[in-house]
Design brief:
- It is built from 5 helices and 5 strands.
- The protein is an alpha/beta fold.
- It has a single domain, classed as 2-Layer Sandwich (Nucleotidyltransferase, domain 5).
- A 5-stranded mixed beta sheet has the order 3-2-1-4-5.
- A hairpin with a 2-residue loop joins strand 2 (12-21) and strand 3.
- Helix 3 (103-111) packs across helix 5.
- The longest helix is centred in the middle third of the chain and has 20 residues, at 74-93.
- It starts with a strand and ends in a 6-residue tail after the last helix.
């Protein structure tokens, strides 16, 4: 089973692709969807197009996305929420199962502690997937962690 993890953002969307095999989890790739447009409407169209290309290339059976659960900056929260809406719609339109997890749920699933810091999360993701440096940094590591969390659920496609 191929699982696409997504860490939503407004201009930088982390993604991570893993395969769930009988022998365990296998890293495929990770990175960022970088949205260049400053115009809100163009940004959303560019985001959808970028995700659809990724979906077409990777053909995921499942998408696991991080939920937005609080925001200190209202403007950023609105922008990320708009992005999440576009990402969610693109996944649903492609008839791909979608699981959503809070950052606390993801951290607990990966490190065993819901309040783990970024450094601990990146180390755990690297160790579990047996990879070195994660392409795409924190955002991609969060996306890989979301994909891994999705893999722990009993989902049959």
């Amino acid at each position: 089973m191929t699982i696409l993890g997504i860490d939503p953002g407004s201009a930088r969307i982390g993604y991570g692709v893993i395969k769930k095999e009988k022998s365990g989890l296998k890293f495929v790739r990770s990175g960022l969807l970088k949205i260049a447009s400053k115009d809100k409407n163009e940004r959303l169209v560019e985001l959808e197009s970028s995700l659809l290309k990724l979906i077409k290339k990777e053909k995921p059976d499942l998408v696991a996305m991080e939920k937005l659960y609080f925001a200190k900056n209202v403007k950023t929260a609105v922008e990320v929420s708009e992005s999440r809406g576009i990402l969610t719609l693109a996944v649903i339109k492609n008839k791909i199962a979608l699981l959503e997890f809070t950052p606390l749920e993801i951290k607990r699933a990966i490190t065993g502690y819901g309040l783990s810091d970024k450094k601990s999360m990146m180390k755990a993701v690297s160790r579990i997937l047996k990879i070195g440096k994660i392409e795409g940094g924190d955002d991609a590591a969060d996306a890989l962690a979301a994909a891994m969390t999705g893999s722990f659920h009993n989902y049959n496609h």
